[in-house]
Structure formats: C-alpha cells, structure tokens
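Sample entry (300 residues):
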Amino acid sequence: MKKIFIVIILISLTSSAYADKLKKSGFLTKNTNYSKEKNITDPKNKIILIYNHGQRTHDGGSSDCLWKNGAANMSSMVGEKINGKELMVYILCTGKLKGDDKRLWNKKKFKPPYKGKPKLEKRLEANIELIDSFVKQGVPSKQIILSGRSCGGWMTMMLIARYPDKVGGGISLVPECYGKLTKNYKVEKVGVEQALENFRKNDGSGPADMRQKQIDEIKNSKSLPILVFTHPKDPFGGLLTDWVEEIPEVKRIIISEDNKVNGKSCKWNGKLIKNYHNMDWADCFQYYNSTILEYIGSRI
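Predicted structure, serialized as tokens:
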C-alpha cells in the first residue's frame, strides 16, 4: 500500500511538472501560454522574435523545449509596440532533432570527418525554414529577430554569421554548446588555453575541432549586429566568451558579476539563482527588457 501511495505521488508531481512545460512550437501570449491565434494578421506591422531553447543532448533527440517559468521574461515583452509595430514571440521546439553521427563524443570511436549533419546544423536549418515561412506570410525579413539561449544562443550566432540578410538581428543569451567548459575545466584557475587543451584531451578532437570551426566561422563574419548576454560565473560559457568582442558590431552585455542585477537579487522559480547559466530566466533579467526592445527598434 505504501509503494502504491509513493507511485501516485510521483505521478502527480510528474504530471504537474509537465503541465508547466512548453512542448510544441508556437506563438506565446503575455502570460506564457500558447496563443489561440495562429495566423499573422497585418504582417507588415508585426515584429517576430524567434526563441530557441537550449539542448541537453549533443546529437541525440530529446523532449527538450522550454518550461513556462523559463519563458516568462520573453513572454513579458509580447505585445510591446516598437516603432509602431507589435512584437510577437515564437517558441521553436527542436529537441527531437538528432545528429547523424552520434560517435562524435566518443573519442575512441569517432573518426573524422563528421558524417552527415550535427544536431546544431539541423536546428539551424529548421530556423531558416521557419524564417522563410514568416517572410512568405508577408513579414519583412528585417522585422524578424532571432534569439536563443545556451545552444540556441550559439546557433543564433552561427546562423546570422552565415546568413546576415535572413533576419534583422539577433539576441544570444549565455551562449555555449559543448558542456560545462568553464566549470569542468577550471578556466578561472588554469586559464582559457589550458582549459580548452584539457577539453580536447578529455572529450577528443571531434568536439573540440567542431567548436573551434564554428567560432572561426562566426568570427570571420564582416559584422555581427547582435546582443550577446554572458555571465562570468556561468559554468558553461562563463569565462570563454571574450572572443565575441573581437567581432564588429557585437554588443556584449555582462549580466552581472554575481546573482544581483541593478541591486536586485535574482530569483528563478521562487529561489535565489545558484546556476548562473539560468540568469536569463531570473526575474531580475527583465531589467534588460528595455535594452532588448531598444536594440530591436534599432534593427527594424
């Protein structure tokens, strides 16, 4: 009887947790629900902000998308008027996409070159397809702004570097897509070069070479007019993001040095932020809404 009771509790907790999860692509309302209206009315007077979530698997499929309390800050900007045009936020769920060669992260089995397309490239292609669909509906491409966090933020930089005319601009939040590099390889203690060398030794040349190739492509863009938000204590990108400042037109914003923004303690899900990779989800991050809206206004 006791076991049955425990199972019922677990099912109940799981059900309520998933009730708070956004599991499909679609436009959001201001209160972080899906909009009932699926068509874009008066498209020339709309601004579409596409939001890309992070990913838990390097090349495998998953149910990854977004928790409602992770989308709250983006949803808070829905309906804002920028230069007389209304802002809409679209969540693009691409967690189920899989890379073609899952041996990349097994250095004993992986033999370069990578065979096929990695998950990041497939996510990039999904964004291109979505952008083209909005343009076909009459939304001017300059009024489409690409954004994303973590791997989604990394992919945002890749796409705009490769296709600068596809969208009006981009917002990259805590970008990184190759694990907890700052934390696991003790960047603060050993320095960037040694940490990346240790990453190569531990994970293999496959992931290390792919990461560097993507960075080189992003850096080789003549300009990258995007906002990049980072935090030095982010266990993923943290102290490994200085390279973005070498690119013309990138505006890098360091969110904070700790868990406060503008003197306000940052909380997420009712608790003080401890994982600085989630700073863009914290309630205090709405301090930057005005910066984001001003940036969007400068790009459309």
